[in-house]
Amino acid sequence: MGEVIRLVHGNGGRFSHELMERYILPHFTNSLLAPLHDGAQFTVKAGRMAFTTDSYVVTPQFFPGGNIGKLAVCGTVNDLTMNGAVPQYLSCGFILEEGLDSDVLESVVTTMAAMAKEAGVQIVTGDTKVVEKGAVDGIYINTAGVGYIPEGIAIGPDRVTADMDVILTGSLGDHAVAVMGTRYGFTLPDSIVTDCAPLNGMLTPVLSEFGDAVALMRDPTRGGVATVLQEIATQAQVGIRVREAAVPVHEDVAAVCHMLGYDPLYLANEGKAILFVKKEATEEILHRLHQHTYGREAVCIGETMAKNAGKVGLETALGGVRLLDMLGEDQVPRIC
Amino acid sequence: MGEVIRLVHGNGGRFSHELMERYILPHFTNSLLAPLHDGAQFTVKAGRMAFTTDSYVVTPQFFPGGNIGKLAVCGTVNDLTMNGAVPQYLSCGFILEEGLDSDVLESVVTTMAAMAKEAGVQIVTGDTKVVEKGAVDGIYINTAGVGYIPEGIAIGPDRVTADMDVILTGSLGDHAVAVMGTRYGFTLPDSIVTDCAPLNGMLTPVLSEFGDAVALMRDPTRGGVATVLQEIATQAQVGIRVREAAVPVHEDVAAVCHMLGYDPLYLANEGKAILFVKKEATEEILHRLHQHTYGREAVCIGETMAKNAGKVGLETALGGVRLLDMLGEDQVPRIC
């Protein structure tokens, strides 16, 4: 047991300073964060930047393979990456529940620092609020991030056209099943761990190497692959055909999904991306992805078509076609 | 009564899209937000930028003169301004409680849009999570912001030296007393309203007009004026003397503070700044501040000294000197 976090740790005075100095600054230390001046300052080159934010409210806050801090860094790093940006700087806003054990906070902060290091980003500014017991569930984190978009990178739904391949960088459902299993006290096989990972190390080089052969990248988090594909089919006004047999789902994850009635196509992933690529580049891009830890199971799961614009069809194992809509009623709340 | 916010409104699927399209996008609409692509993209000039974040957990969420949305925009605009930056783009992360009335959300969003307009910033990217009833208290908001720092602007604690004047741009305690009065159901005089305001319209021109005559700006939010002065005395290694009689506190606010035992020097303000300025510029800067709505009561409250480095002394009305420390135990939790 560490120290008990109290309301005064969020009042902006002496106790707030102590909280920062004991549990946060030793881990996040970098030259830009040091001045504690209600903001960070840095120099940028002329060009395009991306800016994104996400709040994290996952429950429980620790689960096989990760915790809320891992999600908070990787999620925002990945959103920047999906914008074609090189992630650079992150902000971090904590909302803590009175009575939280400081060991929990420090464990989360330590993970955030490790993930930031892996992703090559700096956590440069932050804020901590403490609310009374019951006014928040343990710890919520918001991260925002900025990064520069290298010259020549232009990805977006408007670049998606008919006759492109759809690549998925790995298996579905691992994160959602790992979190749900912990939440409901199931005994899960050790193989089921969150896929949460920073994807910039794998994808930024792919973008720069393959240039405009990559039209769009998206990470299928909340709403899952089905929701992302439906959004893109609508925005790009193309039809998308997915081969169910090609979609990778780990055996143990599939078994849990089968038992609980989850459809992996709608489950949140935290370390996967969908790429829309020109067909002539598919093989080479897959080869490149396979060389990276996070892309070993990358596979082409389908393609875009001029017909059936705005629709996503799933070719089932039995040869039928099922239309995929966006996620409607929730399968798994508070998954990230 | 509007629609009831449900958990599915945060699941990233169809209901999340509806929530965005009904209650948020119509108010925040701008060309950068439009693509809904998990992030915004914009072009920047080469130079220095500031980046800051704050989470807002104020209770109650509506109070005389404002609401949590007003705080969320003004607070981040002001933090950027205090960095010497011209605020440009804001992110916005909502955490909503299941069962929230959509009218509440829309009212907050409408206020945010109005404040963003006044401050000349765009809310360009966001995120909405919904947690089950009881896992958050109504609505929490995180905003992060970026802005560019004009060439030649260099303010910071290291610029503060002995023999500078300390300017306060207006009266203390209005925000904290307005929120506390509402929280505890006091009948307050109509004169007591939050001072929450975006300060860039007043202060950015002062910085550009008076250049390096302004050494530092800080907004005395959580922890109040006393905490900010103590931080700066320590960081700049100067002594600071404040004349109690010069510190403006509105009569009705002072009466409430007297009754409840609050010290206005430790109360949070949301539309005030402290400026450390070269003495020869004080008169002109005050004259300039007085011309702006938010600076009409600006006044010089004290000065820096070479002696007593790291200490802040308050010259009381009776002629004694009281040392001011940072805020210790809390007077007013969840004030912003």
TrEMBL record, chains A, B:
<dbReference type="InterPro" id="IPR036676">
    <property type="entry name" value="PurM-like_C_sf"/>
</dbReference>
<protein>
    <submittedName>
        <fullName>Hydrogenase expression/formation protein HypE</fullName>
    </submittedName>
</protein>
<comment type="similarity">
    <text>Belongs to the HypE family.</text>
</comment>
<dbReference type="Pfam" id="PF02769">
    <property type="entry name" value="AIRS_C"/>
</dbReference>
<dbReference type="Pfam" id="PF00586">
    <property type="entry name" value="AIRS"/>
</dbReference>
<dbReference type="InterPro" id="IPR010918">
    <property type="entry name" value="PurM-like_C_dom"/>
</dbReference>
<dbReference type="InterPro" id="IPR036921">
    <property type="entry name" value="PurM-like_N_sf"/>
</dbReference>
<dbReference type="InterPro" id="IPR011854">
    <property type="entry name" value="HypE"/>
</dbReference>
<feature type="domain" description="PurM-like C-terminal">
    <location>
        <begin position="166"/>
        <end position="312"/>
    </location>
</feature>
<feature type="domain" description="PurM-like N-terminal">
    <location>
        <begin position="42"/>
        <end position="148"/>
    </location>
</feature>
<dbReference type="InterPro" id="IPR016188">
    <property type="entry name" value="PurM-like_N"/>
</dbReference>
